[in-house]
């Protein structure tokens, strides 16, 4: 009888403990849900409402932001955006908007990107209730390209140490060694397309080529086995809006789920690479050591690998797709490349200038400073329209003309500049050159068909769909 009573007591204690754990779990889930709601409200819902209101009041920068996420297959949307950027530049080097400053001036964009007076992250007054709420909600946010220790948002001295280690691995020599492999990958992908009866029906070049080439290269850089490359591609596509703001709630939640899933996958993958290092750049990065013998931490490794995919995949997809679209609209430039293939490297830089994969960025003043004669107070944000700087007539003659022979095409700012100059710039240029040159050598009479669609993202700029007929040379 005593044993039975004792057993009942133990069962009651167990059930009470389970109930406490359930309540704690429910409370934690509720707290996480609330934090996510706050992140979406502060980072997306409120900015979206504010921008829409300012756009209705004819504030040029807000009009630009409001229109930049509207896909338009006709190209008229792109022309409107560039017209707005021209009008912003006409207002002066650093005109003041409703929510900060904005510039489409090449000189000012370059100055701000290179200046130690500016930082990549917003500097908040942490004493205000709203700032404390934002900090609380960010504490459990998933790791992504806009959260430390991402190279996109870290600053010296952490950035200096971090980038030094990463640059040793992602060197120009390493990229050059990848060129031969990239050529083989491109040949293989185009061979698959050629065997699929070219000319019989349109194929979506984004799905069948522009996305497959960079994700295969990145998979080899990261040492990802063939069985998981489709999963890597899905992650790359789903993470593209993580750089955006003003996202609808459903899309924001989907992006955060993808970030969490990708981070978990990366943790397992890096452990696998530690156990079984291979002949890939991620294995080298895991083994890399600074002068004092220290290497990258686990979170820094995951952040770097994530940035390789998040930034290196989507931007290259966009570079390839944008390049195909430009050559379709400018057949004379396409013919010039056929006559003189040595123009391809310069053509890729002109594509990056004329239709950049990264449309805009921003910086926040770390201290009171002056830019182009205008006082910029500490904590003020300056929106940097990279696409506008790339069409500045003070730098580029006839800036709205696509010209693959342009002598200063490389002066574009599509890869940023200064300490945050794109780590993968050489890789992107190489993939763009190899990918496009190989495509047009295999299908010189390639012809786009109806149905092209731009992505609905504000920061990254490219095609979601690009249907084409792959006409063989003899057709």
Automatic annotation (TrEMBL):
Keywords: Heme, Iron, Metal-binding, Monooxygenase, Oxidoreductase. This is Cytochrome P450. The keyword Lipid biosynthesis does not apply. PANTHER family: BIOTIN BIOSYNTHESIS CYTOCHROME P450 (PTHR46696:SF4), P450, PUTATIVE (EUROFUNG)-RELATED (PTHR46696). Belongs to the cytochrome P450 family. It comes from Streptomyces lasiicapitis. InterPro entries: Cyt_P450, Cyt_P450_B, Cyt_P450_CS, Cyt_P450_sf. It holds the Pfam family p450. The keyword Lipid biosynthesis does not apply.
């Amino acid at each position: 009888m005593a044993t039975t009573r004792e057993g009942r007591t133990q069962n009651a204690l167990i059930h009470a403990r389970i109930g406490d754990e359930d309540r704690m779990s429910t409370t934690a889930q509720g707290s996480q849900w609330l934090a996510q709601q706050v992140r979406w409200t502060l980072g997306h819902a409120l900015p979206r409402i504010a921008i829409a209101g300012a756009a209705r009041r004819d504030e040029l920068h807000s009009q630009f932001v409001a229109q930049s996420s509207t896909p338009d297959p006709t190209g008229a949307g792109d022309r409107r955006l560039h017209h707005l950027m021209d009008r912003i530049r006409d207002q002066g080097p650093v005109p003041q908007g409703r929510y900060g400053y904005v510039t489409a001036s090449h000189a000012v964009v370059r100055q701000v990107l290179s200046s130690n007076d500016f930082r990549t992250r917003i500097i908040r007054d942490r004493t205000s209730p709203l700032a404390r709420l934002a900090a609380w909600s960010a504490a459990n946010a998933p790791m992504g390209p806009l959260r430390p220790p991402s190279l996109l948002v870290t600053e010296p001295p952490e950035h200096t140490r971090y980038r030094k280690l990463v640059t040793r691995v992602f060197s120009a020599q390493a990229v050059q060694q990848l060129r031969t492999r990239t050529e083989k990958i491109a040949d293989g992908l185009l061979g698959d397309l050629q065997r699929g009866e070219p000319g019989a029906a349109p194929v979506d070049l984004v799905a069948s080529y522009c996305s497959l080439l960079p994700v295969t290269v990145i998979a080899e850089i990261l040492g990802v086995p063939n069985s998981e490359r489709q999963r890597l591609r899905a992650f790359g596509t789903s993470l593209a809006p993580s750089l955006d703001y003003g996202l609808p709630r459903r899309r924001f939640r989907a992006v955060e789920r993808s970030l969490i899933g990708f981070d978990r996958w990366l943790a397992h993958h890096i452990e696998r690479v530690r156990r079984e290092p291979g002949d890939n750049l991620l294995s080298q990065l895991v083994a890399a050591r600074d002068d004092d013998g220290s290497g990258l931490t686990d979170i820094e490794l995951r952040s770097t690998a994530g940035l390789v995919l998040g930034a290196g995949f989507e931007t290259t997809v966009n570079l390839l797709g944008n390049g195909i679209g430009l050559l379709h609209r400018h057949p004379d430039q396409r013919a010039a490349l056929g006559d003189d293939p040595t123009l391809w490297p310069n053509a890729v830089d002109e594509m990056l200038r004329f239709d950049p994969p990264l449309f805009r960025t921003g910086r926040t003043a770390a201290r009171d400073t002056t830019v182009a004669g205008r006082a910029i107070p500490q904590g003020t944000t300056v929106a940097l329209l990279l696409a506008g700087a790339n069409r500045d007539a003070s730098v580029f003659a006839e800036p709205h003309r696509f010209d693959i022979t342009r002598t200063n095409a490389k002066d574009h700012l599509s890869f940023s500049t200064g300490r945050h100059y794109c780590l993968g710039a050489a890789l992107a240029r190489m993939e763009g050159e190899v990918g496009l040159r190989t495509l047009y050598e295999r299908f010189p009479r390639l012809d786009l068909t109806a149905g092209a669609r731009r992505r609905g993202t504000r920061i990254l700029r490219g095609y979601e769909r690009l249907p084409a007929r792959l006409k063989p040379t003899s057709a």
